[in-house]
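Allow me, if you will, to draw on your knowledge of protein folds for a short while. The matter concerns a single protein, recorded as an amino acid sequence and a row of backbone structure tokens. Kindly check, if you would, that the fold set down in the tokens agrees with what the sequence suggests. You will find the record immediately after this paragraph.
***
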Amino acid sequence: MIFEGLADRLQNTFKKLRGHGKLTEDDVNEAMREVRMALLEADVNFKVVKDFVKKVKERAIGQDVMEALTPAQLVIKIVNEELTELMGGSQSRINMSPNPPTIIMMVGLQGAGKTTSAGKLGLSLKKQGKRPVLVAADIYRPAAVTQLQVIGKQLDIPVFSMEPGTDAVTIAKSSLNYAFTHANDVVIIDTAGRLHVNEELMQELKDIKTQIKPHEILLVVDAMTGQDAINVAESFNNDLGLDGLVLTKLDGDSRGGAALSVKAVTGCPVKFVGMGEKLEALEPFYPDRMASRILGMGDVLSLIEKAQETFDLNQAKEMEKKLRKDDFTLDDFLNQMQQIKKLGSLEQIMGMIPGMGDIKKKLGDRELDLNGKEMRQVEAIIRSMTAKERANTSIINGSRRKRIAAGSGTRVQDVNRLLKQFEEMRKMMKKVKKMQGGKKGFGGFKLPFMH
């Protein structure tokens, strides 16, 4: 999980602080030592850590904190505010041109995920009602053009490319004419990367910049390269003048120091983060929400937004009606399970819910993936049933249970357990229905994505 080590260290530090009624200067100093070590272990730039700890300490040793009724909470609030500020303060959006098309140039080293990120960004803008075109200007990497074309086809986004041998500057310039004639209001240019920053690459990128004057130059950086990501960002920023960063593979880096350091070191904000391999897995970067997640306060806003995107509102209303009529079947249960799976791994979801970090620790190494073995087993069992059996579980006798187990590659005990859990859930829903006494919503409670 992203920032897992850092989150654990910081949360343990603040738990110790909460044990003190009043805070002394020594208490704050001790806590700041822990914070300093936690940030350095998370691969945050040394100078950034030094400045951060200094700012927090100055504010935390102030009179208001020392005399407060809950000084530990005030210290956590200060750390939260300073972490947010460190990562950019507020969300940085794409600079959209008032006169279309908006030209976005994707740059970076080879293997950082530029081509995939170009597609992901295209999908994100398409969902906002834009009409993007992807431009295949990486003329060096074998199959780079084909890869972009495959992604474009998957997302139903046009891809502009030219004959092999055409130089990148000509491709970039020609793509603007294509955008004008095909009414594309966003042009996303996938440029070539190199294993090392070299003069030839930089000159080509400078030439493209001079000719097409992009509104946005985004550097795609692999978050797992740690401090090297900062060096790459500095180098590209000095040569090209960046508008922002896309940090990829952030879900695979439990330290995440690049995300914390890059704004302070380069002045370039992180605009998007890649949180998985799926083409939908590019998320806007919100410094305040990320700070909350690191400190174990959750990120409910992102969870609500994810749910609103993922859940079908009509289906949610239909489900509410079924629950009221006591008409909830195994088909509905399977449907709900598949909707929740779209939110991402259970680990990601728990990271967004305040206070769920402790529950995750208690589970230890147990499977937390919604695509894990247990979930796949449940799906297999339900799919091995007939339509009548899914609609009315009471008809599932011993011989039917044996057939379902054989058809799903599971044991009869597994089928029995699922049916028992399903019946318990239905009983619970009946109780909720009685408690609500005909009122709208479940006992006054509504899920955030239900209107």
